[in-house]
Structures are given as structure tokens and as C-alpha cells.
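As a warm-up, study this chain.
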Amino acid sequence: MITIQRVRVRWTAATRGAPGAAARRGLDTAVQLPTVMPVGELAVQDVLADEAAGYERHSETFAGSLGRAKDVGLWLEMPGTAVVVGRLPGWAAYPRPGGHMRLFTLAAGQVGRWRANFRFTGCTCSPSWYYEDWLVHVSNGEAEPDRFVEGTPDRAADQRVHLYGGAARSAGRRR
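Now compare it with the structure written out below.
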């Protein structure tokens, strides 16, 4: 079983300044997994803290085959007992979507963490910007409810960029 938790924070261009940043500070952190996760080859908890909902966190869980990882922007392969984790190209306006990108490989029992941020635009009929900050944990195996909150990841990839222009925040650090 693979366990994934994606925590997203979403805000609009109108609140990208310091007061808006203060309102969403600390929301891009892991949360407790539900004590009972859905059963499947893959179990996912998707958490969203949206400015439109006052940054109240909304959580959904689902299970399925490894292919369902695409629902949270990932692709997974399992050569033996290891799991290879990669990111899929998405719909972000910035950073520009590329092809599949390998993030890390997890041995049985290991946990990986991926951080990324994005700028999205609405449809052409309503070209309004919004932003998302992502924190994604992947466990190659079942995870205790506090594993992502208390534990240290075995592998990490940080692909956050400066969304408002200027120098990059990171250079795609991996460990």
C-alpha cells in the first residue's frame, strides 16, 4: 500500500502581499492522517486550504490503483518493493509545465516529501490568476496518522519557485 497526503494552500492575486501571506502562514504543513484510511493499492488524503473558504482546511480521502496518483499530480512505478515517485506536467501557467520528472525512489517503509508552488490562470473567458503552494508526502507502505506531522522524510525534493518574479527560491534541491 502507498499512502499519499497532498496539502494545498490557494490564494488570489489580490492577497499576494504581506497581509495575505500572514493569513496563510503555517497552512502549508502536514496534518494528521485519518485514523482509518480507505483501503486500496493507493490511499490518498487531499487537503485544501482555500482563501475563498477563509482558509478552512477541507479534506478528502480516496483509494484506488497506483494510476490514481495522477489525481494529485504524481506518477508512480513499482519496480519490486521500491516505489519511484515523479511529478506529472500540470495546468500551471508558471512554472511552465514540462514532461514527467522523477522526484525520488522510496524503499519499503520510506517516506518522501515534495514541495512545489504554482501560478494558475482561469479560463480564457475569465483570465484571473490564483496561486497554490503544495506539500506532498508519499509513504511506501501504510503510514501512522502522525507520520507526516512528526516524522522526518527519507527523501525530499523542493521545487518551489518565486511566483511573483525575481530570483528563484530553490534550484530543485533533492536529497
